[in-house]
């Protein structure tokens, strides 16, 4: 999966994207694009010694059955909770559980979506963007703080944070919001929500105890 913490939930073109609890009709399908924070098990199907894995303890300790399910979390992840909130019993299955592969950069994820749609409806020619494939409603999460995650600290002999990573994340986020707003103004029916993970993680690192954390420097295991 690509290293950017960016997610798109692509909903059917004619269905209102609201929580099922509000009385809305559940969308017929949900498609998730993103990195390991949204992975529901694709990593289990990737080959090679350098592929990050989440199929051993203590991953999954709070997942049903307390078994590792390929999610980089102790239980359900963001994709799972959003899917359940929209009326699905579970999140979308890992794409590679249906089609084997070796790598899934974001560009490849979009191509996979195109291939999946072509199996559901008659093919209507070569398409390059999600909008032209029929996507209309997007939930997008921007890139959070990257400088102090354990993987970044491991690269520093003293375990210090890498401020350059945050500059990259901040620069991408600054460009992301106006770009999406511009698309919404140009594309008929384009609707979106943009969650500020950068702000959320910044607040968490500033006052970790306020949200229940006692250690924000060490890895979980």
TrEMBL record:
Residues 1-20 form the signal peptide. InterPro entries: GDSL_Est/Lipase, SGNH_hydro_sf. The keyword RNA-binding does not apply. Keywords: Hydrolase, Signal. It comes from the Eukaryota. The keyword Phosphoprotein does not apply. One of its GO terms (molecular function) is hydrolase activity. This is GDSL esterase/lipase. It comes from Eleusine coracana subsp. coracana.
């Amino acid at each position: 999966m690509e290293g950017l913490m960016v997610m798109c939930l692509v909903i059917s073109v004619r269905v209102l994207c609201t929580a099922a609890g509000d009385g809305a009709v559940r969308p017929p399908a949900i498609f998730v694009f993103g990195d390991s924070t949204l992975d529901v098990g694709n990593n289990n199907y990737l080959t090679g010694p350098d592929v990050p894995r989440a199929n051993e303890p203590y991953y999954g300790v709070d997942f049903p059955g307390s078994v590792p399910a390929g999610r980089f979390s102790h239980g359900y992840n963001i994709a799972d909770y959003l899917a359940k909130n929209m009326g699905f019993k579970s999140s979308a299955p890992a794409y590679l559980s249906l089609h084997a592969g070796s790598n899934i950069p974001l560009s490849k994820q979009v191509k996979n979506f195109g291939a999946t749609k072509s199996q559901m409806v008659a093919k209507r020619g070569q398409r390059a963007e999600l909008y032209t494939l029929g996507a209309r409603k997007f939930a997008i999460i921007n890139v959070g703080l990257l400088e102090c995650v354990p993987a970044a600290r491991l690269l520093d002999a003293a375990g210090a944070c890498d401020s350059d990573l945050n500059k990259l994340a901040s620069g991408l986020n600054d460009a992301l919001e106006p770009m999406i707003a511009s698309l919404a103004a140009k594309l008929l029916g384009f609707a979106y929500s943009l969650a500020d993970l950068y702000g959320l993680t910044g607040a968490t690192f500033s006052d970790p105890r306020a949200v229940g954390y006692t250690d924000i420097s060490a890895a979980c295991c």
